[in-house]
Design a protein that fits this description.
2 domains; globular; 315 residues
Length: 315
């Protein structure tokens, strides 16, 4: 496994980051002991970097995975908090529920622009206080938007940026993949730590996974890349890919055999673009939300890129 320093934070992370959202109640909803086993397997195979968030409700998985583990672990969490009190509660919740005195990195979750960062600045100032006290080591933002990456470049107090980035630009809501790449390069030139998300476009690029991983691994501006994993086989395959080793067909076949489904997030606006795009007629709008028919869905991923809210995942 390759390890890199995350910008100028002094924090050393594995190039492969485990995106813990996937095992939790919002997606695969694995039992805690099963999800913790998958996380622990990644840790024991060289993955030292875990990404979660207050919203994901995955702290119990992380706490169990870390029981008795003595290796180095870097943990990021995120919160939608916008006041000092809300962020104080979020940080304490993360510490208590993961069993860690320090949360290495804490981010404002899903920022959109300089305006939204300004609107959350009271909460961010609390993170800066936590950094001074040693409760966290670095602070920053996560985002799906080019504008927020560019805004964060101009803020000296932002240490880390967690942007959405994949080779088709699936999920980038205010630009394309080239614009996001340019914004990331600028952030790196300003000393920011960068670890990207959604290399597989929320599962919509699973059929093009080799091209998708080659793309992000070929970008030297990405200090680490967060990937969601829910099985031991997925961990083994991704560790091999990120270590530059060949993946045996036997492992690829086991990963392909894992049952998957189309998952539509709760914030769907019911615009109907996905239903119009679906040639299998597997999506309908019901009570103002998109609903998937698993009997018709081919898991082709064609619906995901047309969703402007990035609601559609294959998990």
């Amino acid at each position: 496994m390759e390890y890199r320093e995350l910008g100028q934070t002094g924090i050393r992370v594995s190039r492969l980051c485990f995106g813990v959202l996937t095992v939790g109640p919002l997606q695969a909803d694995l039992p805690v002991d099963n999800g913790a086993q998958v996380i622990r397997h990644a840790l024991e195979n060289g993955v030292s970097f875990l990404d979660t968030a207050q919203y994901y409700r995955t702290y119990p998985y992380i706490k169990e995975a870390l029981q008795g583990y003595s290796g180095e672990v870097v943990l990021t969490s995120k919160s939608y908090a916008y006041t000092r009190k809300m962020m104080q509660d979020a940080v304490e919740e993360a510490r208590q529920e993961t069993g860690r005195d320090m949360i290495d990195i804490f981010l404002l979750h899903e920022q959109e622009s300089a305006l939204t960062i300004k609107g959350h600045w009271e909460a961010y100032e609390y993170l800066l206080e936590c950094k001074q006290k040693g409760i966290i080591r670095a602070a920053g933002i996560s985002t799906h938007m080019v504008a927020a990456v560019r805004a964060a470049c101009e803020i000296p107090e932002v240490d880390v940026i967690h942007p959405l980035y994949n080779y088709r630009g699936v999920g980038i809501t205010d630009g394309d993949v080239n614009e996001m790449g340019q914004a990331i390069a600028e952030a790196v030139s300003r000393g920011k730590g960068i670890y990207s998300m959604k290399a597989l476009g929320g599962g919509n690029l699973l059929g093009e996974s080799r091209e998708a991983f080659d793309f992000v691994l070929g970008n030297k501006d990405l200090h680490s890349i967060a990937v969601g994993m829910k099985t031991l086989e997925e961990v083994e395959m991704n560790v091999l890919i990120f270590s530059g080793r060949e993946v045996p067909d036997s492992i690829r076949d086991r990963v392909r055999s894992v049952p998957r489904k189309l998952h539509i997030e709760s914030w769907c606006t019911g615009c109907g673009k996905c239903a119009a795009r679906c040639t299998a007629e597997a999506i309908r709008i019901e009570n103002g939300k998109a609903v998937a028919d698993s009997g018709r869905c081919r898991l082709c991923g064609y619906c995901g890129p047309v969703c402007e809210e990035f609601c559609i995942k294959i998990i």
